Amino acid sequence: MALERTLSIIKPDATRRSITGKIIARLEEGGLRVVAQKRIRLTREQAEGFYAVHRERPFFGELVEFMSSGPVVVQVLEGENAIARNREIMGATNPKEAAPGTIRADFAESIGENCVHGSDGPETAKEEIAYFFSACEIVG
Ligand code: DAT
Ligand code: MG
């Protein structure tokens, strides 16, 4: 199995509730290493650009509003099969459907405010990492 990198975002609902530490512990205990990390606040434009693939969806406005509503922690996670592993640790998009013991099942309050983002494939991981980090900010 190959060593992979994925982009993770701890979303504004989680930073607001001071559960970033708990979330990072889940990621690390799940076998992922944090090889880059910063706390930033996204502008509307940055949030729109990041989620551009969803711009035609009915929830796009809400999503952009939410993602730029407070600080986020953006991270690059590294590990064996990191993209799929991270999504497993996160749980399903809708916390009501997320498996017990996942971050979204245990911490998220709604489908729109679901605590974490994780890249969904190798191509998006590469693009999303480059959206936030330069090569010299990633220390494996
Ligand atoms: P994921 O974040 O699990 O990759 P996604 O890419 O389908 O899910 O959607 C991106 C985000 O958009 C998701 O984390 C929360 C929001 N979202 C998705 N479906 C939604 C819905 N039906 N109503 C409100 N927000 C939604
Ligand atoms: Mg997605």
UniProtKB/TrEMBL annotation:
Catalysis performed (reactions): a 2'-deoxyribonucleoside 5'-diphosphate + ATP = a 2'-deoxyribonucleoside 5'-triphosphate + ADP; a ribonucleoside 5'-diphosphate + ATP = a ribonucleoside 5'-triphosphate + ADP
Keyword Transferase: yes
Localization of this protein: Cytoplasm
InterPro entries: NDK-like_dom, NDK-like_dom_sf, Nucleoside_diP_kinase, Nucleoside_diP_kinase_AS
GO terms classed as biological process: CTP biosynthetic process; GTP biosynthetic process; UTP biosynthetic process
Top-level EC class as recorded in UniProt: transferase
GO molecular function, one term: nucleoside diphosphate kinase activity
E.C. code: 2.7.4.6
Keyword annotations: ATP-binding, Cytoplasm, Kinase, Magnesium, Metal-binding, Nucleotide metabolism, Nucleotide-binding, Phosphoprotein, Transferase
UniProt-annotated binding residues for ATP: 11, 59, 87, 93, 104, 114
Active site feature: 117
Stored SMART domains: NDK
Alphabetized Pfam families for the sequence: NDK (PF00334)
Superkingdom, natural source: Bacteria
The protein's assembly and partners: Homotetramer.
HAMAP family per the UniProt record, alphabetical: NDP_kinase (MF_00451)
Function statement: Major role in the synthesis of nucleoside triphosphates other than ATP. The ATP gamma phosphate is transferred to the NDP beta phosphate via a ping-pong mechanism, using a phosphorylated active-site intermediate.
Name the record gives this protein: Nucleoside diphosphate kinase
Lineage: Bacteria, Pseudomonadati, Pseudomonadota, Alphaproteobacteria, Parvularculales
